[in-house]
Amino acid sequence: MARRLNSVSGFLLLAILWEVAPRLGLADRQFFPPLSRLLVELFSLAATQEFWGYLLSTARTWAIGLVVATAAGVIAGLAIGLVPGARTYTHSTIEFLRPIPSVALIPGVILIFGSRYQSGVVLITYAAFWQVLLQMLYGLNDIDAVARDTARSFRFSRTGFIVHVAWPTLLPFLFTGIRLAASIALVLAVTAEMVIGTYGIGRGIVVAQTSNAIPTMYALVIVTGLMGVGINVAARGIEQRLLRWHPSVRNTAAI
Amino acid sequence: MVRTTGKILHRLAIELVLPLALFGLLLAVSANSTNFYFPPLARVLERFDALWLGPRFVTDVLPSLGRLIAGYAIACLAGVVIGVPLGMFAALRRAAEPVLEFFRAIPPPALIPVLVMLAGFGDTMKVAVIVTGAIWPILLNTVEGVKGADSVLDETCRTYQIRGMSRLWNFVLPSASPQIVVGMRVGLSIGIILMVISEMFAATTGLGAAIIVFQRSFEIPEMWSGVLMLGLFGFALSVVFRLFERRALKWYYGMRDLERRS
Amino acid sequence: MAMNAVAVVSVSHLNKVYQSRERRVEAIGDLTFDVAAGDFTCIVGPSGAGKTTLLKCLSGLLAPTSGAILVNGHAVVGPPAEMAVVFQEYGRSLFPWKTVRENIELPLREKKIARTERARLVDEALEAVALTGVAGSYPWQLSGGMQQRVAIARAVAYQPKVMVLDEPFAAVDAQTRADLEDLMLRLWSELDLTVIFVTHDIDEAVYLGQRVLVLSSSPTRVLDDVPIDIAGPRSQATTRVEPRFAELRTRVYRGIQQAKASVHG
To answer: What pTM value is reported for the model?
Structure first.
């Protein structure tokens, strides 16, 4: 019995429940349409141009924000990590700025960009930047330790050190940072669309809700979930492929 | 090594020099600002003093805090209660994992319209939004923590007849607690973000609502003072959490510090 | 051996096979032996002799494939309540979130022993292992040898019919090890314990035991059952140089060599 509880059965159970409960009147059909109704809605949405417009717009904001945040995180990380003393002096500032919720920037970006997609990019950049920066600093810290050990036993040239020690040590940290940043970026892209009204799936959800198109609303929420799963799966896949050679499978908090 | 007062002062000076410099710089640069959107910092601070250290603290900050605490407490409780059995039973975990994977991948703000439809614009909705976002890191880290319990300690429990609730309280939960707390820390910052978003979305009272109302009515210094308040709110909670963490996991940090030193 | 005394632990025709889809490993072939009340029995065998498997079956952590184990007259189906186990990995068998006192007290709380009685048992156990001063410390603040003493104190306070130790001193340094061996001997004679002590160290087995069981390589059987007839109290300084110690040591050593040869041959 226990062996039969595999990964498919969980989904199956949920799907059956979602289909049957509204039909039997166990859940309000108006608020919880049966799953089949949502899937039909999803397919008909996929035939509209508007849906793909939403999807591409959200994906674009996400991608630009992630790239900017990664670049900024890497540059700031290198600057803080490599300039002697910089880490000590920036420590308290980073600890103060990091817990500031990214959404605090919303009124500011509305004033500057209004409901253009750049608003989303700024929010994403702020939130995702910290993930990359922190992992960069952890990684550079690690290089210090590795460098101390290897410097004793090997003589590396400067480029040799970077190619053989620094880069391979840093890479897994950087990747962890980017993976965490990628899922946070999606959250903020959707947030910007919902609160600020930039074009994308988030706005689609709000529009569907206010116009009482409940199946459409659910279908779009499911799409954001699928995007999230897609990002997670892709990031993990790339990470495993790129870092297959790496001895340590990096453990981080599940987010 | 003895820490002298001099060393502590030196350390404090290092910690404070950059924040103070940045603050001073901002104060100076903005002093003569005529830009409507970026008023002088001094003016923002003056509004901050009048608003947030005054009546607004009671009418906006406290309601926000109340919702956050309610939602966060539910998320912590539910995350642990659901996470423990999933961590303990592999079969259950195999069945539930893909479903959980999907639900946690949904950006939490996307659920706001769904919850508005179900619960209206009131506090219930806002608390529910916080729960739906903050629960995931707590739940997933609980599962990982429980799953990773030491096998020798488990055998110790079995040989000494430590079973049932006693096993849960004395072994399963404490051994998972460092990982659970990591999840709670992530959950807290997500909770704060969702508290603000839900208030911005359904503007009535609260920090998020106040900021968005100021912005819409172009009361710019007031708006920035709210942003400052929000920043301090997040910072203060993270400080409180760190104190809690150090206290609750005294054994864990003691053990880790010892390992690092050796 | 000690046939007139009551057997506290009785193992008959124990057999354990690990069966997976690809292969079948017979860890324990056919084991039969009794341990009498008050005895100090050491079990030695070459590495890979299924000592750990035997211990897990004895302590009810693993179900045997066939055969029976009786502890205090009851068949072992799960961990028996009359048994206390001391594991090799002392660092992983104490609860790091509990103080030394709480670690020792927890099993007693499970036994529903009253508070004052619990306090007395814990105090006595701590005194027996000379750790009275560190009752309020956490285990990880102590040295390895002290941690293992806490684990032993926990077993002592539990007042078991039989105490089982799985290579308990394999991970401590030589000097600490000698001290812990003498501690075990003292506890055994003062507290009237029945001890089953698993080790891979021949000297340790002969030094501690009233009797040494020599196991073969897997599939494990009993190769030899050596009564340790060294008169008088044992001492690190003198016992190990006695002629009788050397003879017994040689007998056990030959047994183990034979066990190894039978694998390679």
So the answer is: 0.87
